[in-house]
Amino acid sequence: MDDMMNITVSKLLEQVARQYPEDEAVKFTDRDYRRTWKEFNEEAETIAKGFLEMGIQKGDHVAIWATNVPEWMLTFFACTKIGAVLVTVNTAYKVFELEYLLRQSDSKMLVMIDRFKKNDYVQIINELCPTLKDCKPGEYDNPMLPYLKTVVYAGNQETAPAGMLHWKELYQKAEKIDEETFREVYDSVNPQDICNMQYTSGTTGFPKGVMLTHYNIVNNGKAIGDCMKFTHDDKLCIVVPFFHCFGMVLAMMACLTHSTAMVPV
Asked: Global pTM?
């Protein structure tokens, strides 16, 4: 047990960013997104402040419905910085599955892209939330989804669909949160706090939300990275979905615990 890491995901990221500020953390090959550890940590902090400005507080649940895009990674690490819980959404979900997950997980915010394969996410969310287009971002009100207040659009269009907040607006909203306010929340997060809910079907019935702590996923990632003999000089090509434990913990967290660069597909 002596080699277990008793640290939050966010403080581990900050630690790696201090140790290897100019070294590559993330590099996408299909888009113009490349960040050093210092840059990636700072960007995740900016998004965290944007979430705070949109009313996300410690313990709130933020769902992410997207393929392996930079916004997925930033949403996750931003949540860990303010004690929010990331709820992973299967990219193949249809409207009834999304409704179940959002309601059952008490998600307050949904971050989503345009589509995946034949699934038009914008069409699905408007079918599920027909009054969303008439609301201001952050003020959605639906008795069927009592917790959901904000839908953040992280797709490819320059303007967000009606009722949604565009991802790029989070960077502007972050400017309204002072460092003291952010640090107070940041320092209150504990390794034993829940940071992730992953939905697994198990053997019967509807998927069940499995609650994972910072301690859980940091040490799971460390164990995998140790077995794989990852080092700071390595790069990991991540070809599996982030929404699954394989992509998020066995890949992303294994990289973070060993300061290994991530190359997502």
From this structure: 0.96
Q: Which of helix, strand or coil describes residue 176?
A: coil
Given a contact cutoff of 8 angstroms between Cβ atoms, the answer to whether 238 and 262 are in contact is yes
Q: Is residue 265 within 8 Å of 233, Cβ to Cβ?
A: no
Q: What is the pLDDT of residues 194-208, one digit of tens each?
A: 999 998 876 667 788
Report yes or no: 248 and 196 within 8 Å, Cβ to Cβ: yes
Cα–Cα distance measured from residue 105 to residue 200, given in angstroms and rounded to the nearest whole number: 13
86-122 residues labelled b (16+ CB within 10 A) or e (exposed): bbbbbbebeeebbbebbeebbbbbbbbbbbbeebebb
Q: How many C-beta atoms lie closer than 10 Å to residue 57's C-beta?
A: 12
* Distance, first Cα to last Cα, the chain: 34
pLDDT digits (tens, 9 = 90+) for 166-190: 999 999 999 999 999 999 999 999 9
DSSP-derived secondary structure letter, 178: -
